[in-house]
Amino acid sequence: MPAFLTGLPALAAAPAAPWAQTGPADLLLAAALAALGALAGAAAARAVPLFARHDPGPDDDTPPPPPTCPHCLRTVPFHRLLPAPRAGAVPLRGRCPSCAARLAAPPGLSAATAALFAATGLGLGVEGAARAPLWLAALLLLAALSVLLSAVDIRVHRLPNALVLTAYPLAVALVGGAALLAPLTDPAAGPAPVDLAGAVGPLAGMAGLSAFYWLLWFIHPAGMGWGDVKLAGLVGLYLGGLGFGAVFSATFAAFLGSAAYGLVMVLLGRATRRTQIPFGPFMLGGALLVLLVGDPSRLLL
Question: What residue range is the signal peptide (predicted)?
C-alpha cells in the first residue's frame, strides 16, 4: 500500500468502509455537500458557453480561441492558477463582464455536480473527511471540474487550457498536501512525521499517465486529442497514490466505456466508425469510479 494511504483507509480499501457502513452523520454530510455541489455546478455551468469549437485543417497551426463571449466576441480572462473566470459576473450572475449579455448555461450541470459531491461524502464518510480534509477538498475539486470539462468536451470537442492547465496548481497542492499530512492523522500508526515519500505515488501517476497518453497521441494523433494528453496528468495525479492498479483500472474503464458508447451509437445509426467521440468524459468518469467506489484490480491481487 502506498505510504500516504495508510492514513486514508477508506480510500485504500475501496468500498469496504463508508459505503457499507453509512450512518446518519454520513448522510447529513452527503446532503450538505450536495447543496454545495448544486451551487458550484450552477456557477461553473455559466462558463460553458465561453468556449467555441475549433476544427483546424491539416496545415492550420491556429491555436484554439480563448474563452470568448458568444455575443460581443470579447475575450473573457481566466485566472492563471484557478479554472475560473476572473470576472465574478460570469459565475455569479451568468453575464458577460463586457456586454452584460446573459450566458445560456446548459441544463443538468448543477444536478450532476450535486450528485458527485454527495457521492464523495458517502465515499469518504464523516470520519474520513475529518481525518483527511485536504483529500476531501481535492475530490470535490475533481468532481466539479469533471462535470464542467465533460460538458465543454461534449459541446465543442475541446479540453481548454483555461480549465485543464489552470487546475494543476490547486490539485497538486491539495493531493500533495493530503499525501504528506496523512501520517499525522492516522490513529493506527500513532504520531509520525510528515512523510515526503507519500508524494511519490501521485507525482509518479501524473508523469506516467501523461507519458502513456502522449505516446498514444504520438503514434496516432487523429485518434487521441492533445487535450486528453494534458488532462491525463491531472487524472494520474489523483490515481497515482492508490497505486498502479488504480491507474490501470481507471484507464481501462475509460477506453472500455468509450468503446461501448461508440458501438451503441453506431448500432443506433447516430455515428459511424469515423465519428469523433469526446474522450475526456470517459477519462474523468473512470477516475471518479475508481476513487469513489474502489479499485477492482485489488480483488485480483
Answer: none
CB 52 within 8 A of CB 41: no
Helix%, strand%, coil% for the chain, nearest 5:
65, 0, 30
CB atoms within 10 A of CB 147: 29
Residue 84 lies in a domain: yes
Is residue 266 included in any domain, yes or no?
A: yes
Least confident range of 29-43, 81-95, 101-115, 265-279: 265-279
Domain count, the chain: 1
Domain range for residue 252? 3-56+66-295
Q: What is the torsion angle, in degrees rounded to the nearest 10, for the CA atoms of residue 191, residue 196, residue 202 and residue 207?
A: -170
Q: What is the DSSP letter of 291?
A: H
User: pLDDT of 10-39, one tens digit each?
Assistant: 344 334 344 557 788 999 999 999 999 999
